[in-house]
Amino acid sequence: MEFTASQIAGILEGVVEGNPEVAVHKLSKIEEGQAGSLTFLANPKYTHYIYSTEASIILVNRDFVPEQQLSSTLIKVDDAYKAFSKLLSYYNQVKNNKSGLENPIYISETATYGDNFYLGAFSYLGSNVEIGSNVKIYPNVFIGDNVKIGDDTTIFAGAKIYSETVIGKHCTIHSGVILGADGFGFTPDENGEFSKVPQTGNVILEDHVDVGAGTTIDRATLGSTILRRGVKLDNQIQIAHNVEIGEHTVIAAQTGIAGSAKIGRNCMIGGQVGIVGHIVIGDRVKIQAQSGIGRNVKDDEVLQGSPALAYGDYNKSYVHFKNLPKLVQRIEDLEKPKGN
């Protein structure tokens, strides 16, 4: 795919300075730009690269004024970084705009789907599946019975969507994701053996939810495991049964959330965080990486450590911990008998 500077400026509502007909077919970093590529300049510390890059087109802020002659064509926009992100989204839409049914596939007679639907080879649609318009399902995807998928959602290769799962509009489910596997529910008997507790609920993803590769979200024991609108999950996250995550919360890789935990909206949770079950975490909470959360958390708290402390208290404590050998030595010196 090739785009000219004038076409790109039209998409981004920008102004061309240079050759409006110069064409690009790939994207690049500014320091690695080659002929036929488009790049951007947003961080001032990279400004010197604009005079040496071989990129054909460069997105810059409207107030940028070159101090030397440039060989590249400029497109001036309000915010070069946001414009480049918008262009990446547009590029992905064009690249992934597949439609039609590949073979071999299985579609139940009771399954329905909307316009501009793509289903990749070796995929399976179970009974009573309902799929909206502009949905893209890549090869080797399993969609169980009674699943509902909203418009403009993409499910990448190898994902497994168990029965009764509900996925909203504009969601992205990456490869290897498993939605709706049984929650970890077992009860011990008098002999110390464990019997499985049936997991009869489902998983619900509201609109604009992203789920990273290899992430697992378990169905509820009763009711639903729910990810509210705009939740963004990184790769390799485990979310247990009956968890609820509030709107626009973001969670980094390798975090584990135990059953029935309730997490508020607009939270930011770092990588490798462990959250115990049956607690409530408030809104706008920030949790640093590798923290362990074992208690209820109020709105706007910032936590670090395991068990987690308030962020400021953790840093103060860590200073004392680092100095502990020196403090022990001082105490030993003070306790030595005088004259020795």
SSE map:
Blueprint: E1 3-4, H1 5-12, E2 15-17, E3 23-24, E4 26-27, E5 37-40, E6 57-61, E7 73-77, H2 80-95, E8 100-101, E9 106-107, E10 112-113, E11 118-119, E12 124-125, E13 130-131, E14 136-137, E15 142-143, E16 148-149, E17 154-155, E18 160-161, E19 166-167, E20 172-173, E21 178-181, E22 186-188, E23 194-196, E24 202-205, E25 210-211, E26 216-218, E27 224-227, E28 232-233, E29 238-239, E30 244-245, E31 250-251, E32 256-257, E33 262-263, E34 268-269, E35 274-275, E36 280-281, E37 286-287, E38 292-293, E39 302-305, E40 308-310, H3 311-322, H4 324-335
Parallel strand pairs: 4-5, 5-6, 6-7, 8-11, 9-12, 10-13, 11-14, 12-15, 13-16, 14-17, 15-18, 16-19, 17-20, 18-21, 19-24, 20-25, 21-26, 24-27, 25-28, 26-29, 27-30, 28-31, 29-32, 30-33, 31-34, 32-35, 33-36, 34-37, 35-38, 37-39
Antiparallel strand pairs: 1-3, 2-7, 22-23, 39-40
List keywords for this structure.
single chain, UDP N-Acetylglucosamine Acyltransferase, domain 1, 2 domains, twelve-stranded mixed sheet, ten-stranded parallel sheet, 4 helices, LpxD, repeat, acyltransferase, lipid a biosynthesis, lipid metabolism
Give your account of this protein's structure.
The protein is α/β, with parallel strands linked by helices and 340 residues long. It has 2 domains: 3-95, Udp-n-acetylmuramoylalanyl-d-glutamate--2,6- Diaminopimelate Ligase, Chain: A, domain 1; 102-314, Hexapeptide repeat proteins (UDP N-Acetylglucosamine Acyltransferase, domain 1). The protein contains 4 helices and 40 strands. Strands 8-11-14-17-20-25-28-31-34-37-39-40 form a 12-stranded mixed beta sheet. Strands 9-12-15-18-21-26-29-32-35-38 form a 10-stranded parallel beta sheet, with no helix packed on it. A hairpin with a 2-residue loop joins strand 39 and strand 40. The longest helix has 16 residues, at 80-95. The protein is flat and about 80 Å long. The relative contact order is 0.06.
